[in-house]
Structures are given as C-alpha cells and as structure tokens.
Amino acid sequence: MAIATNGKQAAKAEKPSKIGGAATWADDRLGLATIAKKQIRKVFPDHWSFMLGEIALWSFVVLLLTGVFLTLWFKPSMAEVTYMGSYDQLRGLHMSEAYASTLEISFDVRGGLLMRQMHHWSAMLFIAAMFVHMMRVFFTGAFRKPRELNWVIGGLLLMLGILEGFAGYSLPDDLLSGTGLRIADGLMKSVPVLGTYVSFFAFGGEFPGDDIIPRLYTVHVLLIPGLLLALIGAHMLLLVYHKHTQWAGPGRTEENVVGFPMMPVYAAKAGGFFFIVFGVTALMGGLMQINPVWRFGPYNPAEVTAGSQPDWYMGVAEGLLRIMPGWETELFGFTLSWNVFIPGVVAPGIIFGLVLAYPFIEAWITGDKREHHLLQRPRNAPNRTAFMVAMMTLYGLLWAAGGNDILAVVFNLNLNYITYFMRVAVFVGPVIAFILARRWAISLQRHDQEALLHGYETGVIMRSPEGAYSERHLPIDPARAYTLTARDRDQVYALPSGEDENGVKAPGTRRNRLRAKLSHYWFAHNVQKPTREELEEAREHAEHELAMHSGGHQHMPAGDYLGDHELDGHPADGHQFDGRHDVHGEELRKH
Amino acid sequence: MRMLSARLSSRRRSPLAGVVVLLLGLLVTGGAYALLSPATAQDSAAGDEALVSQGRELFLVGCASCHGKNAEGIVTQDGTQYGPSLVGVGAAAVDFQVSTGRMPMAQPGVQAPRKDRLYNEEETRQLAAYVASLGPGPAIPTAEQYDPETIPEEEREEAIVRGGEFFRTNCTACHNFAGSGGALPGGKYAPTLIGVEPKHVYEAMLTGPQQMPVFSDDVLKPEEKRDVIAYLQANEETPNYGGSALGSYGPVSEGMFAWLAGIGVLVGFAVWIAAHSTRSKKGVQQ
C-alpha cells in the first residue's frame, strides 16, 4: 500500500485485521488487555534450574488430557463380570468390571494402551519433577522469606500428588493394585484403637469389599485433581506476586529481576517445553511397557507375585516396612503392631512434617527475618546443603530397601544381608553423607575465597633466576568477583545475657541457649566473604606482582607499579612473563 | 619260560624292538581305557540292567563324593546335609537336575545354579536309570504329559486360561508374574522360567528341586501341569504389548527408567532451552 506523501489527503486508519478485530471485540467486553498488558511484560530470569517445576506443570497437563481419555472407557465398579475381550490368556475368566474395562482400554480401544501408558509414565514424571524442583528450591534457599508459604503449598502438592498416584495405581483392580490396597489396609489397622474402625470405614466393611474402587475413583478423578489444580493456581499466583528469584550477578539486586519478558521469549520457551514434555511422555508410553496389568491378572486375595512393589514414589514407605524388625506388644489382649505402625504411619508423618516446617525451623536457628530474592549457592549454606544430601541419601537407601528382592535377584545378592545392611545404613549413611557434603561445601567456599584474594591460576609457570618455579595468579574478572561477593555475612546468634541488671532471668533463656548452640554449629565454620580491606590488599599485591614482571625487575617495592598495563582482570597469554624479551609497550591480552 | 625270555632277550636289540614295544604299550593302555573308563554310549541295545550298571559307574565318578557311594546321602559333622539321599527321588529328578546342568554342582552353595550340561542325553539316561533303581520315584514324563501341543486345538485356549489361574495361584509368589524369577531368603532364589523347556518345567513341578515345593499329581493333576506350561508358552509367544518390558521386574525397574530416561532427558532439555536465549550466543563472551 502506497503511503500518501503529498499531504493532499488525510491519512486513514488501516482496516483492522480479523484477529485484531476479534481481540478488540473481546477486550471491549472482558477488559483483558489491561490485565494482560502488565503480565505479558513480566520478566523472568533465565536459568535451567528454574524450569524444573515446569516439567511437573506440563506433566500435570498431560495427566489431565490422557486421564480424560481413560475415563471415557474405564468402569469404576467391582461387580463381577466374565471377560470376553481380545486378550487370549484371560478370556472367560471372572473379574471385576474395573479390571475388565482396563483390559478393554489396553486391547480393544484404539490408542488405549498408549494413553494408559502415557498416563502412568507422566504420573511418575509429575512426582519426580516435583521432587527435583523441590530440591532446587531447597539447595538455593528459595524457600526463605517471603516464600515460606509457597514452600508449604509445594509440600502439600507433593503429598497430594503421591496420594493421587496411589489411588490411580489401585484403580485397575489387578493383582498389584489389590496387594497395594492390602498394605494400605494394614497401615490403617495398625493405628492403635482406631485402626479397625478406620479400615472398615474406608473399605465399607471387611477388606476388600465392593466399595473401595468406586470411592477411589471419585477421589482420583475429582477430589484430588481439584485440590491439585487449586493449589497449583495458588502456587503460581504467589510466584507472580513474589516475582521469581534470581542468581546474584552484576546488575542483579534484591530489588529487581533481570531476565526476559514473558512475551515473546518465555511464552515461546514454556510453550515449547510443553511440547517437549508431551513428546517425551508419548515416546515413553509408546516404547516402554508400564504396569502390564494383563500379566498380573485380576486381584485375588489368595494370590501374590514376586516383585510386588508400589510405584517409585511410594518406594520409601515400602522400604521402611521391609527393613523394620517385627516388634509387637501385647497389651490387655490387644496387639500393637509397632512393626507396621512406626514405619507405615509415624515415620511418613515425621518426614512430611519436617519438610513442611523446614523454612520456619531454619529461620528460627539463623534468626534471619529479611526478605531474600537473590538465591544462595548451595556451598554458601553448608549445613542446609548437607541436610538435603543426608535426606537424599536416606531416601535412596530406603528406596533401595523397598526393592530388596529385585536387587537380590538381579545382582545375585542375599536378600537377608541386604535387609540387615539397610537397617544399619539408614542411620549411618545419612550422617556420613551430611559430614562429607558439609565439608565439601566449606572447601568450595575456601576455593571461592582463594579466587577472590589470590586470583585464578593462569597455568603460566615462572622460573626465577634462582631456579625456583612458581605459578602466576591473576585477579579474576570483576563481574565474577562481584557475583562471588554478592552475599551476606553470616551472623552467629549471640546469646543475650541471662539476667538483666536486677538479676531477673530473661524469658526463654533455655530455648535461646539451644538456639545459640544451633546457630553456632550452623554458621561458625562457614567461610565469610573477604572484607573491603582484604580485597584491596589483595589487589595491591597483584599489582605488585605484575609490576615486577612488567618492568623486568624482580624486586620492586609494593605500590611502585610503573608499567602501563591496566589490571583489567583478563587472562594474560604468558609472553609478558617469559623474561627473555623486553615487554615494554606490550599490551596484556584484552579479550 | 627261560627259553622264551632268553629268546626275547636276544632280540631286544633288534631294530624292530622299539616299534613293537611302542605298539604293545599303546594297545594295552587303549584296551584298558576302553574296558575300565566310565562307559560312554557303548551298547544302545543294552537292557535296563546294563543301563543301571553303566549309570552306577558314572554315579561313582561324578556324584558319589557328595551323595555317597550308594546314594545314601552324606551328613556333615554339624548335622547338615552335604548331599541329600537320592533313594526314591526318581528318574524325573535326575533328568531335571542333570540335563539343566544344575548337577553336578561346581562347588557347594545355597542353591545349584543352572549352567551348561555336563552329561549328554545317553549318560543322563543311565544316571536316571541307576537312581530310579534305588527306590520308587517319579519317572521321566512323556511328551504327551508335558507338551502343550498335545492339547486338542479347540480346548487349548481354555487350557491356557486355566493354566494362568494355576500359575498365579501357585507360582507367581516366587517366580514373579512374568516368570522372570524372584528372590528367596538366605541367598536362595526362584530362577527365571523364560526359555525353560516344557519337560523341565514339568519335572520341576513333579519333583520340587532346590527350594521348590513338590506339586505331586494329587495336588496338581498332570493335565493341570500341562496347562501351566501352556500358559507359560502362550506368554512367550505373545508380543510385548506396549513396548520393551524393562526386564519384567515390575514397578522397581519402571521407577528407574522414569528417573534415568524420563527426568534425565527432560532436565537435559531444560538446560538446552535455558542455554538458548535471544541475546546469548554460545562461545562468545559479552
């Protein structure tokens, strides 16, 4: 279209495009533009670890999509039917409608098996991604004020996700489902006094009854997904409200967020990531068999199979049950099954309570009430990092204990020895892991300190006239130095004096003493970032070093730097130092 | 005699003497070996008596060190069995143990592992005949007893379904839902059933080798045993619906693949996405 330039005619507004027209139509009625205007320019920082939660989110979307497909054919009923479908090895067998319809989805519905397998794989990925995301948040201290409540929401999401997974695992009413439900029944019954009532309430009578599958179905497709959706919404609203945390670096402060706007960069990245997650799940669903219910057969309380395990996220509970010694007490004619109650009910309760309460426990020990938007590197919080590593070790050991029979048969090991080993290892392993990780983190802190005060190792080896060899160090990049020093100094909580001037004891002294002790353990071994004086002295020293070689003199007093090379912090190529030719006028390599 | 030795003696320096002595030596050792060595297939027409005696010869060389010279078993000083008595175990037990290579064991252990067989079919038959002669026991089953092919075509499907029920009720607890094996206490295990010959599966049920309970014909009728075998065979013949079975070990291996393949790949993609931003190019410093 030619643009009128002679000024004889007034320029007319172009006819709006169809999409633009539709958008205006919608905006006039919904007023979305005003809300969207701000949000689509929302800035997100760029780091791979910030995308782990997204894997969980997109897996949840895949779960919703494939789950809706499955509900179209699945019959949540325990009524007995005769299977007449197309799987030969089971035809003519009596089974529940739930199991028969699962077989129908697998063998007689077009794409049904793919959908079932995708649903199952993406459930595994959903919870695994939540775990990985949680570890990232934990290691970087992203749960600190003001994000403690979002951490709690995340913890609830994880718990609900596991429950939802267990409900789904139980629905097909195959041999593994039933075995899992039997264990759940046992856990309920192990609760002193209430146990039997709880179990009869849940199963509508004696196990297995006819009620549990329809009930679990409602829980699985309505109750928990609804809660999950609501909590995911709250989780993300809080994310937008708090703004995303970011790594320290030049230009990044507690008051800003440096990154790219939502539109178009993040919309494209996140949208693309959804398709990647969907694609990977589809590949897994198409290529890797999961939960072959037709092999397990319908549930029959008289049957059990070797390799009866829950899905991986319940592996810890399974491991706890498997390694627990068989302790029981008989009291007034009633048996208290500690062997089931402690690992099945008490231990998971403690673990989840600890997870949810962690931000508050740490804040109490450190006394840190400030807001934090810059992330901490794991090494700069050695005890927190070590705690998580210990928890991961415990988790891994219990998980392995839950698969002790598979380990025994695959690696030709003795089943009993694995169990005995695990009984000790779950107590010793985490302690060892804690000590190792803590010292490792502190060593890395020392390494940072070294880089700040003595520079980095250039790899240039010098020989002095006396014949001694030494390696040249050069100051690190100022941007990197900034990043390394952009952290707070840790402050050990000092115990307030026990009595005031009138000899009255301060309230809560005992609690404070504990806190001071913990705080001392938490911080006292950490390496604090160098002070301004230390950094200046280090720089002076470096300048002196450079001057010595620049002028070809070996002994020049400190501060008498006469060369014209700027200490720009970039690596030298080494020729300046070889001492064989005059370096006057030669530039240090700039880039 | 004197004359003979004198005559021989006079010829001992003959140029042919060395050759003659060599030939004689070879003849004697060869003949003695043929007569005295553990008899291999020598006479297929030999009757039961011959089979038993040949089996006994083999037994004394290969089995007696653990099971005793009369297969009465050897008890150690602390009361445990070094090798159990074989009186009354029957030919089926010998056929199973020897032709799957479990016996003779390479070394004492909690359980005899399956390995390449040491005795050929003929020798196995002889050993079985000898052990069967010690006392009444289950005989080696015939093909119509164990072979699922002998089930009439129209009844086969029903037999497979029935066999599946027996299998899930009696076998999966140790051998796993797919027959891929499982662990038992104290380093013992139920071996995999995948690729095991129908005859051996039948004999195992009949005789209860190693840790396995005996499923006698009163407990599981011969045709019910055959149904179980038919189910196992049907499983091996059906394709792996839904992709690779990941070892058929159930949720443990699935969990491992969810982490290694699933989360591993997705985190890799997250790194890849974050590494590609509008303003960042690889390899160039800002």
Automatic annotation (TrEMBL), chain A:
Catalytic activity, as annotated: a quinol + 2 Fe(III)-[cytochrome c](out) = a quinone + 2 Fe(II)-[cytochrome c](out) + 2 H(+)(out)
Which cofactors does this gene product need?
A: heme
The record's keywords, sorted A to Z, are: Membrane, Transmembrane, Transmembrane helix
Residue ranges of domain Cytochrome b/b6 N-terminal region profile in the record: 22-248
- What enzyme category does the UniProt record give? translocase
Electron transport listed as a keyword: no
Annotated segments matching region Disordered: 550-591
Protein EC:
7.1.1.8
Q: What is this protein called?
A: Cytochrome bc1 complex cytochrome b subunit
Organism of origin is: Nocardioides jiangsuensis
Q: What is the lineage of its organism?
A: Bacteria, Bacillati, Actinomycetota, Actinomycetes, Propionibacteriales
